[in-house]
Amino acid sequence: MARKVLVLADVRDNSFRNVSFEAIAAGKKVANGGEVVSVVLGENVSGLTSELFYYGADRVITVENSSLKEYTPDAYSQALLQVIDAETPDAVFMGHTAVGKDLAPRIAMKKQSGLISDAIELEAVGEEVIFTRPIYSGKAFEKKVVTDGMILATIRPNNIPPLDKDESRTGEVKALDVEIKDLRTIIKEVVRKSTGGVDLSEAKIIVSGGRGVKSEEGFKKLYELADVLGAAVGASRGACDADYCDYALQIGQTGKVVTPDLYIALGISGAIQHVAGMSNSKCIVAVNKDPEASIFSIADYGIVGDLFEVLPLLIEEFKKE
Ligand code: FAD
After folding, report:
1. Residue 271 CB neighbours (<10 A)
2. By the number of CB atoms within 10 A of the CB, which of 22, 106, 207, 246 ranks highest?
3. Collapsed DSSP state (helix, strand, coil) of residue 107
């Protein structure tokens, strides 16, 4: 069955987050010979669209409006609903990002559709689309089968590989005018917290620190290792609560959910609420001075030792690479 799949691109600082391309790849899996239409909402975004074709979009729709410059739930949902009404897609996908998590339920409510949230895999089998998603804080996975109605899903970053980049691909770009009115949320100022160069939720490598790092000063060493590896820095809530770092770095049940290729946990005990946010990392390396620490039960590689001795050795070794 051929389907038309609308994929919302996630724009940040004038470029697309990788999950935009991963969601296009997800769209391709269910389009089944139909088309994948990428939607870009924002202000001055029409110059960005070529990359969406490189990663597989068949068509692009841009919606430019000054009230779409920054994400607000009411402006974005009004704009996306109008694109959905104009295109009548069989499926709508977006990243399971801060934007996607907030926007998708609003779209589901307005369109009276279901919502598959946080999908990590999907396949189309005949009339059915089968999604896999984590449950019980990542301890188990469930399959959800969607057979009718508009399929709405958010796709977890770093799980579905994007298609190979092909710079010869191009396609039609259409600008759509939408009416955005009665806004209840107006952004007056955006204050960005700097959490280092690499975006935590999309990072391939994360160096993460816990209460064992002991101070803000200790976290500086983590940044040094992260710099050498091209990694992002993350943290447990223990470290955030102790004021060693900003809450923007928190990984876990009430923080960010990450799926990097490599997760290095330093001085983190492995509480269930932390593990909920990182257990699906492809390779977990734990450094902890307590051999009984529960982080070792999920680690692929464990180093029992003082992180302040291990960290300089790791930095030195990786610098040689
Ligand atoms: P600790 O548990 O204190 O562990 C510190 C570890 O460092 C110990 O294992 C110790 O052996 C080791 N260590 C100490 N010194 C050294 C050294 N020199 N070298 C090597 N190792 C050393 N937590 C999260 O992380 N994310 C969440 O999203 C989250 N959400 C929560 C939601 C709820 C509702 C609740 C109740 C809790 C939540 N928590 C969350 C908190 C969670 O339960 C833990 O308290 C927290 O994860 C502990 O952080 P930690 O591992 O850094 O600290």
Report:
1. 16
2. 207
3. helix
| C-alpha–C-alpha distance, residues 20 and 26, integer Å | 10
Q: Which atom of ligand 1 is nearest to the CA of 250?
A: 26
Bigger pLDDT: 54 vs 320: 54
Closest Cα to atom 17, ligand 1: which residue? Answer: 306
To the question of whether residue 78 is assigned a binding role by annotation, the answer is: no
Ligand 1: which residue has its CA nearest to atom 2? 269
pLDDT-above-70 percentage for the chain: 99
Rounded CA-CA distance 81/87 in Å is 10
C-beta of residue 222 within 8 angstroms of C-beta of residue 165? no
For 91-124, give one letter per residue: b (16+ CB within 10 A) or e.
bbbbbbbebbeebbbbbbeebebebbbbbbbbeb
Asked whether the ipTM of the predicted complex exceeds the cut of 0.95, the reply is yes
Return the minimum-mean-pLDDT range out of 53-57, 225-229, 317-321.
317-321
CA distance 294 to 218: 22
Q: Does 82 appear as a known binding residue?
A: no
